[in-house]
Design goal:
Elements lengths: L8 E5 L3 E10 L2 E11 L5 E2 L2 E2 L2 H15 L5 E6 L4 E9 L3 H13 L9 E12 L4 E10 H13 L3 E7 H13 L6 E7 L4 E7 L2 E8 L3 H12 L3 H8 L9 H29 L5 E7 L8 H9 L3 E3 L6 E3 L8 H15 L7
Parallel strand pairs: 1-6, 3-16, 6-10, 11-14, 14-15
Antiparallel strand pairs: 1-2, 2-3, 4-5, 7-9, 8-9, 11-12, 12-13
Length: 350
């Protein structure tokens, strides 16, 4: 984990902002040497699809320039309906046999033309089931989506050397900061602007992932619609800022109604998971992402799913020196988890 391979900048390209984290090894851990966030114009990225590549590339360039980040190589990530993550069961075979047959096997599980995706896989630890089969984690991403993301990164003068998945970047950050507890079921829930990533871990392994197409933008849109507000004003109100003519009390029931919709999707995800899980007792839910700070979000989550909820701290075991890095660790922590997980990646990691 701590080998001194060439470091990368973790670049989290979200639909409302781009965030970058650069880490350096420090003793047996890491320290943040650069962190920053740059907002994106509305609708630059919609449902994970890049609509205005020039605006995204400009934001990345401004962010790197403002923070003085010289490193060219970055790790970025994808989420949403262009990414498929599935745990599949295959006959026990050697690594060479698996490499030869994985595309044929994957065709049965991927709802896209196999020629249109990039495929990766990993045999799960302890994957042999004892009855002549083994469990393999299969990840497929549309080549077109990967090209869009690597293209805007190149436009910004950087090189994407790793393309990960949001849910796994989150897991990477969790493992380094919290460690893994054998047999414990932990839910990592990242509520972003346009999507909510859910990764359910059992010990060290990801056993279920799902991206839900609802996030912080839904709160803004509901306030616009229900209270007849312009987008900018609705966005301010969502964050608890004072606006003329509307009180936060007016906004509260609207925000809670959106949170209820998010909870329904989370409930569906947990139901899917429990239908196939050997151990379904959730020990804790760890939340991150800007939308997790919405009115009543963590309280309703804890109440609905009868599990302790805590805010993800990606700087729990990663040193964050406010003197050298713009921003306060506590303030940026909820939205920095994916970027930290990406910054922990190294070239040729599996």
């Amino acid at each position: 984990m701590f080998r001194r391979a060439k470091s990368l900048v973790g670049l989290d390209i979200g639909s409302s902002a781009v965030k970058a984290v650069e880490l350096k090894p420090a003793g047996r851990g890491y320290r943040v040497t650069a962190y920053g966030s740059e907002p994106l114009p509305p609708d630059s990225i919609v449902d994970g699809a890049i609509i205005d590549g020039a605006a995204v590339a400009d934001a990345i360039r401004r962010l790197f320039d403002a923070r003085g980040i010289k490193t060219k190589d970055v790790a970025a990530s994808l989420s949403g309906n262009a990414v498929i993550v599935k745990k599949i069961t295959l006959p026990t075979m050697t690594e060479a046999e698996l490499a030869e047959s994985i595309y044929w096997e994957a065709e049965q599980y991927i709802p896209f033309d196999i020629q249109d995706v990039n495929l990766d896989y990993q045999v799960l630890e302890g994957g042999a089931t004892g009855n002549g089969t083994m469990e393999v984690l299969l990840v497929a991403a549309k080549k077109e989506k990967i090209a869009d993301y690597t293209g805007v990164i190149a436009q910004a003068g950087r090189t994407a050397v790793v393309i990960d998945v949001d849910a796994f970047a989150l897991q990477n950050a969790y493992e380094v900061n919290y460690g893994m507890e054998p047999g414990a079921v932990v839910v990592l829930l990242n509520a972003g602007a346009s999507a909510t990533n859910i990764n359910i871990l059992n010990g060290e392994q990801s056993v279920f992932t799902r991206d839900v197409s609802i996030g912080g933008n839904a709160y803004t849109e509901a306030l616009q619609r229900e209270l007849s507000l312009p987008y900018d004003v609705a966005d301010q109100l969502k964050r608890g800022e004072a606006v003329d003519g509307v009180s936060f009390e007016d906004a509260r029931p609207v925000l809670r109604a959106v949170t209820e919709n998010v909870m329904l999707e989370i409930q569906k995800t947990f139901d899917f998971f429990k239908a196939t899980a050997s151990s379904d007792r959730i020990k804790r839910i760890v939340v991150s992402g800007g939308a997790s700070r919405a009115e009543g979000f963590t309280e309703i989550l804890a109440e609905r799913f009868d599990a302790p909820v805590e805010v993800f701290d990606p700087f729990r075991r990663v040193a964050f020196d406010a003197k050298n890095v713009a921003g306060d660790a506590a303030a940026v922590a909820p939205t920095a988890a994916v970027a930290v997980g990406l910054a922990l990646r190294r070239v040729a990691d599996r």
